[in-house]
Amino acid sequence: MTQIILASSSETRKALLNRLHLDYLAISPEIDESAKPHESAEQLAQRLSFEKALKIAKDYPDAIVIGSDQVAYLAQSPQQFIGKPYTEQGAIAQLQHQSGKILNFTTGLSVQCINQQFEHTCVVPFQAKFRELSNDEIQRYVTIDQPLHCAGSFKVESLGISLFESLKGDDYTALMGLPMIQLCAVLRQLDVRAP
């Protein structure tokens, strides 16, 4: 059976891939994730997911390598990307700024296997509309869920679901950082079965 490698150290992406009950390795690609001048969210997510997968695929040419990257931005500021807050104060500030607004997510997926001459890279969009949040709600949420390593400062798979008015997209796992519906479709092309 062909080895599968997740080009990521993200615990959330590992948890998503674990749903498929596949044996895989997780290896961090350690690439520069800086945006290039005038690069759109879609271009950045697509390029970084491709570069992450390619970096690992070059070292493991027999393996199926999965790379993914996510870029978030408010609908009214498409060139201003929203990163991870890393601190409670940063998370609180992000959520205060996002309250009542639409946050767009662009999640790139790249699956590569060099020896099979296979490469599939795509972008999956998702949209989250925050309800109007009070400062007390934001403070309580950040204290409980600790979303310090999540772009946009929430964990939709946890208490973060309570922050939204609506979610819109074809695959909610794209919001979590790895679009599983698209990934399963690509893996089937490589004869990897799930289920």
TrEMBL record:
<comment type="function">
    <text>Nucleoside triphosphate pyrophosphatase. May have a dual role in cell division arrest and in preventing the incorporation of modified nucleotides into cellular nucleic acids.</text>
</comment>
<dbReference type="GO" id="GO:0009117">
    <property type="term" value="P:nucleotide metabolic process"/>
</dbReference>
<keyword id="KW-0546">Nucleotide metabolism</keyword>
<dbReference type="InterPro" id="IPR003697">
    <property type="entry name" value="Maf-like"/>
</dbReference>
<feature type="active site" description="Proton acceptor">
    <location>
        <position position="69"/>
    </location>
</feature>
<keyword id="KW-0378">Hydrolase</keyword>
<dbReference type="GO" id="GO:0005737">
    <property type="term" value="C:cytoplasm"/>
</dbReference>
<protein>
    <recommendedName>
        <fullName>Nucleoside triphosphate pyrophosphatase</fullName>
        <ecNumber>3.6.1.9</ecNumber>
    </recommendedName>
</protein>
<dbReference type="GO" id="GO:0047429">
    <property type="term" value="F:nucleoside triphosphate diphosphatase activity"/>
</dbReference>
<dbReference type="InterPro" id="IPR029001">
    <property type="entry name" value="ITPase-like_fam"/>
</dbReference>
<keyword id="KW-0963">Cytoplasm</keyword>
<dbReference type="Pfam" id="PF02545">
    <property type="entry name" value="Maf"/>
</dbReference>
<comment type="similarity">
    <text>Belongs to the Maf family.</text>
</comment>
